[in-house]
Amino acid sequence: MKRRFLTAAAALLLVLGFASATLLAVRQPLSLGDYLSVWGLKARAIHASGELSAVFRVDPAGEFSHPEYPPLWPLVLAGTARILGRYDELLLTLLRPLLLAAAAALTFARTRAPLPWRLLAAASLTLLPYFQTAAYTGYAEALLLVFVLASLFLLESPAPTPFTPAAAGLLLALACLTKQEGVLVLLVVAGLLAATRRFRDAAIAGGIGLGLGVLPWSIYRAAHGVSGLADFGLAAFHPAKPLRALAALVEIGLVPALPWIVGATLLLGLAPGVRRTRRSLVLGAGAFAGLVLASFAFARPDVVWLVTWTWDRLALLPVAAVLPALFEAAAEPFGTPDG
Amino acid sequence: MIPLRARRLLAAVLAGAGLLALLAAAVTQDLPFVDSLALAGRFWRAGPRGRLLNAPGLARDARFAADALRAAASWPADADAVLSVGPLVPPDVRERLRRRAAYLLAPRRVLLEPGNGSEVLLVRGPSGGRPQ
């Protein structure tokens, strides 16, 4: 009876979170922030011209559209518009609930705990601030998240097939083609697989990710005279920048983030079994955050400005990735994690 | 060693508090629920052009966006667009208009040129031309 009530409450929370995020996404056409200046601009250019190279034409000096960004999200927007018969910014908002449903389903599937906790993990994903704002509808992180969570789902599988590393590598390649953070995820995943002596898996996933994700776009954009990242470069290197970025992050995000960090630490502290089984995942999330922070050493713009405008979006991947571990940890005192 | 009952209580409190905090943030949105629904209703009933011109990112410059949309419908795709903006127009507004023009006129290039006074003028450039 109690378990049935908990399951119903968790399912209701999931429905509420999903409905709220969906209403926010579909209540108005895509038009805000980087959608208009970056992702949507490229998508409209591809849709109108039928050519991928149009993404370089709309902003030839690369002053605001980040022509170096990977092209998969604009391609998805343009392809969907082609299927729909016209480029309609309101119809394209429907992609957001589809991606959110996929991410929530993957979170549910990745959580190794009784049903109510799996539902709560999925619900918590839909309730993350990134999905509970209209501002980021049309941004690329939701697609990136689906690829990363899908690759983690495969790599965490207790019964992997011989094709699992290749499939995970393909998903990571798609992540690399969606946003630059996908490359960092690829590095972390390959490194952790190698560190846990899964050398073959690391080589396959890393090789496919690099060969099908990183290299093709790098070659294509270099062929069009677009190289490197506009906001990052070797010449801008300064070892103190990550420290300044960290100080900015502490100033902006510490107060709101502190209860979450303490809560997550306590939950994991109460669950020795999950700490053991999810060690790689937590390490991976930390390594990803460390790499993002280290990358600020090469930032061209002021790192405080960069951190201010990107930290909440950069936090989405590691937070969403560890949600299953947190709910497994919460479930552990109530029974075995696999129960 | 923490007793099992205390661990259960703490785990339930932590998970519950976290979820309640997320839920509380989700229900306190920028618009009340009824207004969000009404906004969605208005947009989904509107036609494609009305939707776009009233979209939050474009509505502030709706007249300019309407001109750009008319141009997008009539100019060849390989023609550049020239946006003349006078010195009395603030730099942030100039940049905003340039980005809106680029979006609405994609895949065309939008070339920025100095204009007179507070002029904002969008004209067709040469087809397949080089940046001026």
Largest β sheet strand count, sense and barrel closure of chain A: none
Count of β-strands of chain B: 3
Quote the average pLDDT of chain A. Answer: 94
| Uncertain ranges of chain A | none
Q: What percentage of the residues of chain B does DSSP assign to strands (E)?
A: 15-25%
Radius of gyration of chain B over all CA atoms, rounded: 25 Å
Structural class, judged by helices and strands of chain B?
Answer: alpha+beta
> For the residues shown, what is the average pLDDT of chain B?
91
**CA-based shape of chain A:** globular
Query: How far apart are the termini of chain A?
Result: 17 Å
Distinct helical segment count of chain B: 5
Which helices and strands appear, and what pairs or packs with what?
The complex is a heterodimer of chains A (339) and B (132).
Chain A: H1 2-26, H2 33-49, H3 54-57, H4 72-84, H5 95-110, H6 115-126, H7 141-155, H8 164-176, H9 181-195, H10 199-223, H11 241-269, H12 272-277, H13 279-295, H14 303-314, H15 316-331
Chain B: H1 4-27, H2 33-45, H3 48-53, H4 62-74, E1 79-85, H5 91-105, E2 110-114, E3 120-127
Parallel strand pairs in B: 1-2
Antiparallel strand pairs in B: 1-3
Please give a quick description of this structure.
Chain A has 339 residues and is mainly α. Chain A contains 15 helices and no strands.
Descriptive account of the structure:
- The complex is a heterodimer of chains A (339) and B (132).
- Helix content of chain A is 69%, strand content 0%.
- Chain A is built from 15 helices and no strands.
- Chain A is globular, with a radius of gyration of 20 Å.
- Helix content of chain B is 54%, strand content 15%.
- In chain B, β1, α5 and β2 form a beta-alpha-beta unit.
- In chain B, α4 runs parallel beside α5.
- The longest helix of chain B is centred in the N-terminal third of the chain and has 24 residues.
- The model of chain B has no long low-confidence stretch (mean pLDDT 91).
- The chains are: A mainly alpha (339), B alpha+beta (132).
- Chains A and B meet through α1, α2, α6, α11 and α15 of A and α1, α2, α3 and α5 of B.
